[in-house]
Amino acid sequence: MADTVHFELVSPERLAYSADVEMVVVPGTEGDFAVLPGHAPVISLVRTGVIEVYDQGKVATRIFVRGGFAEVAPSGLTVLAEDTLDLANVDRAAFEAKFKDVQADIEAAPDETHRLRAEDQLQKLREIADSL
Amino acid sequence: MPSLKDLKNRINSVKSTQKITKAMKMVAATTLRRAPEAAIAARPYATRMQRVLRSLAAAVPAGDGAPVLLGGTGKDEIHLLVVATAERGLCGGFNSSIVRLARQRIHELQAAGKTVRILCIGRKGRDQLRRTYASLIIDTIEVAGGIRKQGFPLAAKVGERLIAMYAAGEFDVATLFFSEFKSVIAQLPTALQLIPAALDTQAVPADAGPDLGGAIYEYEPEEDEILEALLPRNIAVQIFAALLENAASEEGARMSAMDNATRNAGDMINRLTLVYNRSRQAAITKELIEIISGAEAL
Q1: Of A67, B17, B32, B273, which cross-links B251 as Cys (Cβ 3.0–4.6 Å)?
Q2: What is the pTM of this model?
Q3: Is the complex ipTM more than 0.90?
Q4: By residue range, what is the domain housing residue A104?
């Protein structure tokens, strides 16, 4: 039995992550679950949260996901998410600047549609901030 | 017989047209190189989604309990045609061939006494359909800057809108028209039924199902709940994939159209130059004859 599990993260735009890893922790709607090699086949919805990829007993990669589902098959784990973001690529300072930017957008919004759009964006940023 | 100056002007104007078509061909060729990549990158998502939906649909009993997005409303009266075309023209028969397929369908449906409504994605399709079916078009969604710039959120928005309309009972069946990208020179106009989801008619991809080794999927939460959550998402994904295919096809069609145009302009320049030189030589000969016969008369 192989001691790694094949993990693929797919977003509508591209294949975001693909590697053989030790363990993956997936934020399912019914609670987080860890996928190790030889996991029973499961299809589960994924809530907004962070996928943790483990390597040598430690968290190696943390990926933010929003909306989607996970499929565990003998061939590996596939997570389909609408939105993905590798948290290692997030720069704290730049992120906070963006956060302020969007907040300013809300105040300066000329009309309702712009305001709603900016608020929507802020909501997304908050979700990411929570998982940082 | 046009004068020499007219011919010269004509040649120059054809030459500048040729420069434009050549530049457009180059641009299309560069864009084209990236467009299929995007379409192919989106494929794993769409195929996996289909696969999971199929296995879910098989697990959920059909009938009253099935979600309406899968089972349909049980009626077949109002058809919504979503016609996805390009924002820009000058791409050969790309827009026309999609519109032709849509028109044919409208004709069939109307002959069968159904009500037809049209939702256009992209301006060019709307412009063509407006001539004959203006009263049927309910709205147009413009894809400013192309689907790759707009990304998935646009497709998600279209999907949400379709589902809201469906929930409000504004249509019973939705079909998406787009052009499938076969190759640079071949694009295939395609009709894809979105609602109710046509899972069985879809061609099963080669990697259809993973070998579960006799095991059965566990579902978390229950099958019908997952199905309820996935079906709307599936619609958005189908639209997104279709729009990407469309973008690739459009650039392919534009490239071959512009290639043809450049070649035609070249032929035209050759022909015009020939006529120009002939009449120039004729004029010289005429002048010489005049001089000689004038000298002889002395």
Answers
A1: B32
A2: 0.80
A3: no
A4: 91-131
